[in-house]
Amino acid sequence: MKNKELSRRNFIGAVSAVSAGMATTGFTSVFGGATDTKDKLAILGGNPVRQNKSWPQWPYMDEKIVASVEKTVRSRVWCRIDNPVNGTVATFEKEWAAMLNAKHCVATGSGTQALNTCVEALGIGPGDEVITSPYTDMGTIASIIVSRALPVLVDIDRESFQLDPAIVAKHINANTKAIMPIHVMGQPCDMDSIMALAQKHNLYVIEDACQAHLGEFRGKKLGTIGNVGCFSHQSSKTICCGEGGSVVGNDDELMDRCYTVQNHGTSRRGRSETIGSKYRMNELEGAILVAQLVNAKEQWKRRNENAAYLTSKLKACPGVVPQKQYDGMESGSFYLYTMGYRKEHFNNVDRSVFLKALAAEGVALSSYIGNGLHREPWVEHILGLKEYKAMYSPARLKQYREKLDCPVCDKICNEEMLMLWASGPLLGTKADMDDVVNAIMKVYENRDQLTKVK
Ligand SMILES: Cc1ncc(COP(=O)(O)O)c(C=O)c1O
Questions:
Q1: How much of the chain, in percent, has pLDDT values that exceed 70?
Q2: Model confidence pLDDT, tens digit, residues 74-115
Q3: From residue 216, how far is each of 31, 107, 181, 361 by CA, in Å?
Q4: How far, in Å, CA of 121 to CA of 128, rounded?
Q5: Measured from the CB, is residue 211 less than 6 Å from ligand 1?
Q6: How far, in Å, CA of 10 to CA of 354, rounded?
Q7: The pLDDT of residue 422
Q8: d(CA 119, CA 132)
Q9: Which of 42, 113, 324, 440 is the most buried (most CB within 10 A)?
């Protein structure tokens, strides 16, 4: 997302803590003390809940990572084809596939490239349609439109923020080739229903697991349930190297095609066989990733523990509803920790007022995605292109424009999403989590003051 880094920095910079100063009657704070319902909100001059504390920084960096990069720089092997078997990229592919219990991995230069590699390798192109969610990064959509296929964006579930399979079912037609479910925030979408739909209509499933490293659904790692799964290793992600991506899968032939596509159409056998751009990851990126994998499982476990703690404590606040999780979720990734804002429990003030009050308490949440992608200008752009006019009937393009209506997504973007950047912050201590809960609870308990916030 465009303002992602800015938001993350604001969040990290703004959060701070004073929990001990919370006063005496009203809700019981997570520290066991009672908190004064008359406590003055920090935005109106009271003491902030959190101050002068920092969060674990992200991206994660340690001396092992520095040494791995230095070794690669000194080796002068910077391109993966110079050491195709034991280089850092090949090593990352083997180790990442093993961590996910996947047969194969092909690294790429970004998550967008990983997704487009799959679109191309599955032979999806002009005249074909791919159903996905508007509540995502533009990389999801870009991976479809660069192949001149049609992304059909359908509405999402209000509580899970995920693709709604019942709505997906209504948009399947004879041109539909694939569903691209997004495990948004890093937690699994309703894969039981999505896989059943795909099976019924003979569709491919390309999992956009760009936010979902190491999350699990019914005993399988996210990214390994559909035909192929894709990850982003861009800086903010929980396993990252600046810019990077990976495709994972178990189908030998398909994964061989993925390698060929990302290698400008040139196969492992050295023949130039098909259409593909050059999407190769380089050895310096591989060097960072191999070293990042060392701590990845421990960090994933910690984020899950902290997320579970937050969710258990936030039950006390009816005005914030943690992201709904589907039956079958065994763990999340918690790239982001998100909640739905319910203004009726906050004296009917808009989300912007709540966010301001919370930031003043030292806990800055973000509203995340500003616009669902069905509202961005790329839609009119592609509908005006000669390729789309040639490959889709005027009636289909008219219907496409008319059905691009996602009211739940709009409501989440405009009124409800509350997001905590989690890659670094969810590696914090229990006291850090208590600050988040106490800040939210303080604003909730003192919601009568919110109407005075300018
Ligand atoms: C859900 C989702 N899909 C795709 C992408 C694209 O990944 P990348 O930025 O590595 O190209 C992202 C990145 O933020 C994402 O969050």
A1: 92
A2: 999 999 999 999 999 999 999 999 999 999 999 999 999 999
A3: 32, 21, 15, 34
A4: 14
A5: yes
A6: 16
A7: 94
A8: 13
A9: 113
Q: Are the C-beta atoms of residues 281 and 113 closer than 8 Å to each other?
A: no
Phi, psi dihedrals of residue 146, rounded to the nearest 5°: -65, -20
Q: Ligand 1 within 6 A of 140 CB?
A: yes
**Residues above pLDDT 90, as percent of the chain:** 91
pLDDT at 24: 32
Task: Provide the residue type at 425 as one letter.
Answer: P
Residue 210 Cβ inside 6 Å of ligand 1? The answer reads: yes
Domain 4-57+296-369+412-452 has CATH 3.40.50.1100: no
Q: Residues with Cβ < 8 Å from 100, sequence gap 6 or more?
A: 214, 221, 223, 224, 248
Contact, 408 vs 169, CB < 8 A? Answer: no
Alpha carbon distance 198, 153 (integer Å):
16
Query: Which ligand 1 atom lies nearest to the CA of residue 244?
Result: 10
108 within ligand 1 shell (Cβ under 6 A): no
Q: Is the pLDDT confidence value at 304 over 90?
A: yes
Residue ranges in 263-282 assigned as alpha helix (H): none
Closest atom of ligand 1 to 211 CA is: 16
Give residue limits of the domains in the chain: 4-57+296-369+412-452, 63-291
Q: What are the phi and psi torsion angles at 24 (to 5°)? A: -115, -25
375/195 Cα distance (integer angstroms): 28
Q: Is the CB of 215 under 6 A from ligand 1?
A: no
Using the predicted structure, report yes or no on whether residue 33 has a pLDDT greater than 80: no
Q: What is the structure's pLDDT at 29?
A: 58
Residue 13 has pLDDT above 90, yes or no: no
d(CA 111, CA 136): 12
Ligand 1 mean position, distance from CA 58 (Å): 17
Give the fold, CATH level 3, of 63-291: Aspartate Aminotransferase; domain 2 (3.40.640)
